[in-house]
Write a structure and sequence with these properties.
alpha/beta, globular, binds S-adenosylmethionine, about 30% helix, Rossmann fold, 3-stranded mixed beta sheet, 13 strands
Length: about 290
């Protein structure tokens, strides 16, 4: 593997390594900054929402094969999932895909005003039992407590949260007894490496304790929004280790049933690195945990 593990990648000038959030007020301040950032980035989803609607109308589910395989082991979704709550649902593509997969009712929660407007617009055209709440995931409405057969999240979600124990407590209060949470997200390893001229290079992040503030978006995802650097919102991310995620859920009272580490991706991360090299790396992880009955 053409990996240069000795030289850390010079830090992107739009990116600053920092200490994790110190207290609840800093957690909330970071989340509010992220709301501003996502209201900017979600414009790309607004541009694509007609296409998203067409895909959903054609019955094309965006649920990932890893998610489908994990959930299928619990039986057809239509048989056990009356309510699925999607935390950090963006513009609702994955949320509404859960209806196609068989969930009877879906609820999406997202902090971005633009994303939730998009999700409500798509859901209104599509029909079906779908509602969307615009709020910090930590403020998910209490009238949803004890209603979710499935809490579904991931694909670029947990890194935006500054307090994972608080997140896990929300997951726990939403689930019915015996209900499950499913997560598929970037493997924390992927934060440690970047690409340069087709080679992997170390980023200099601390696996055990990395937080980063940044402005702007990767070319593979949202790309250039045409805003000057000063107009771009600062956003804050945290690298959560696999142990952080598992321990947060176990600490909230859930039982881990399955943990997977996968070479499968859900976005074109490290696209300049040869496919056969990427396939040897843990690009994503998945987990299924259950609230005891
Ligand atoms: C990468 S996106 C999720 C992607 C999603 N799986 C998709 O592509 O449809 C991350 C989402 O998390 C949301 N988000 C970030 N921080 C949040 C918070 N504190 N509470 C709720 N949503 C949040 C953002 O608005 C954004 O929609």
């Amino acid at each position: 593997m053409s990996t240069d593990a000795r030289e850390p990648e010079p830090q992107d000038p739009g990116e600053t390594l920092r200490e994790p959030a110190r207290d609840a007020s800093e957690v909330r301040a970071w989340h509010e900054d992220n709301r501003r950032g996502w209201n900017q980035g979600a414009v790309r989803y607004t541009e694509g929402r007609e296409r998203t609607l067409e895909r959903l109308r054609a019955g094309e589910s965006n649920v990932h094969p890893v998610e489908r395989a994990n959930l299928a082991d619990l039986g057809p979704l239509g048989q056990w999932c009356r309510t699925a709550i999607h935390l950090q649902c963006a513009s609702g593509l994955d949320t509404l895909s859960l209806l196609i997969e068989g969930a009877q009712r879906v609820v999406g929660v997202d902090i971005s005003d633009v994303h939730v407007d998009n999700a409500r617009w798509i859901a209104a055209q599509l029909g079906g039992d779908a509602t969307f709440h615009r709020c910090d995931v930590l403020d998910t409405p209490h009238d949803l407590d004890g209603t979710a057969d499935l809490v579904y999240t991931g694909r670029g979600a947990l890194n935006w949260l500054a307090d994972l124990d608080a997140w896990a407590a929300v997951v726990a209060r939403l689930l019915v007894p015996g209900g499950v949470v499913h997560v598929l997200d970037d493997h924390p390893f992927t934060w440690l490496v970047d690409q340069r001229d087709g080679r992997l290079v170390m980023t200099g992040f601390d696996y055990h304790r990395a937080a980063v503030s940044s402005r702007g978006w990767s070319a593979e995802y949202i790309g250039d929004l045409g805003l000057g650097p000063d107009a771009l919102a600062w956003m804050h991310e945290r690298v959560w280790t696999i142990a952080d995620v598992v321990n947060a859920l176990v600490g909230a009272g859930l039982r881990l049933e399955r943990l997977g580490e996968h070479s499968e991706q859900y976005w074109d991360n490290l696209s300049g690195v040869a496919e056969d090299e990427r396939r040897r790396l843990p690009m994503t992880f998945s987990l299924l945990a259950r609230m005891p009955a």
